Amino acid sequence: MRIRLPWFVDVVLVSDPEEIRWLNAHPDVVRPLDPSASVLHRFLHRRLAVDLRFDGGVLPAFLDQDDDERARRQAELHDNLRARLGVRTKEIEQLGAYVAQEPAHGSHGDNGDDAEETIPRERDVGVFVQQWCGRLFFEEYRATPESYRAGRYIAEWTSAPPWRTWGTSARARLADAKRRVSAAAQNDRHCIHATSIAMENIARSVRSLRNLANRQGTGRRGVSGVDADDAMRQCLFVPPAVLRGCARDVSASFLNKPLERRTLVVFLLGRAYRNTGDLEIAFLDDTWSACPANHVVPDMLKSVWLAAAGAREHSATGWKRFLRPAQRIMPKFAWSIVRRDGDLAGAGSGSEGAATEDRANGHSTNGHDGAHGFGHVGERVGR
Question: For residue 238, which of 66, 144, 196, 273 is within the disulfide window of CB 3.0 to 4.6 Å?
């Protein structure tokens, strides 16, 4: 699809995986964007390469193909992250517990015990994801609600409408977010990218895993009924768009007209992945711009799903399965006993003659009241 307004906008939207691969490999389809190519190029260049510039320079996702340091660090990081495959961290276990929750339950247990304090609340999911991302680089990385909000603000900045980025308050907030994220990431630009722009797609994927588990059904079958690889593929959130510019005219058999220098090329990776389920296109595998986390992120999501299966199995077979119904029933039972005893105490002081008459007629007052009392409790519990 091509959107063209002469002298102002020329945008090509590409969602076919083979066309994306072909264009991404072309030497004249480049990043970063040339701000002199068009007004749109200038606007996007400022967003990505100026606003999101850190002390160490531009984030690696916006650097040129010919940047040797970017290529070296990307290859090194790819190897380092592959060594983390299969590692079940504390964050993965906690996110698995979150996925295993039932939608009607709160983030903590009904009794608020310490054993369930580690289950993240909805608002804490991003914090645990950010910490998992940060600890791929630094074992001592510690995420907080403040660092997560800062990272999310940076992630949202790339696609925020113009009116949300105007003014001194928006700029000041962005500067503060950059300082906070950069300090936590020890000024490592790959870690900055992972704990801001990249982490939000992972957090969305984890929330999608929980929704999938709840759609499948309650109890352990909600997780065990779906293979971990299938769950990951269904729930993986892929960046919706990747931008490229053109250094000079580019012709291709699938294009009606050549791409020009002012053309903005948009790879619709999210749509391409949804249409094909192709993980290689989701991470642009085997290309110069391949994501270094192309293996560790799918592995992490599968591990979260398996941890959720374990959490539900523990919940289904543990003592809490039997204790929780009792914990809900006992307060109602006790209240019913109090009410019954109060009624009996009031009746006993003023109805001695009636009680004597009942005994004379062969009726058991205690037996009658006892049956009525437990019947009342049963009625309340049944509701």
Answer: 273
Q: Give the residue among 265, 312, 313, 307 at the shortest CA–CA distance from 289.
A: 265
> Are 312 and 336 part of one and the same domain?
no
**pLDDT exceeds 60 at position 305:** yes
Same domain, 309 and 343: no
| 185-232 residue pLDDT tens | 999 999 999 999 999 999 999 999 999 988 866 444 556 678 899 999
Section 355-373 average pLDDT: 40
**261 plus 344 within the same structural domain:** no
The CATH number of the domain holding residue 164 is 1.10.630.10
Same domain, 39 and 129: yes
pLDDT in tens, 87-119: 888 999 999 989 987 432 333 433 334 434 456
What is the torsional sign of CA 168, 31, 273, 197? negative
The structure's pTM equals: 0.75
Q: What is the total count of domains within the chain?
A: 2
Domain that holds residue 123: 2-318
> Do 375 and 230 share a structural domain?
no
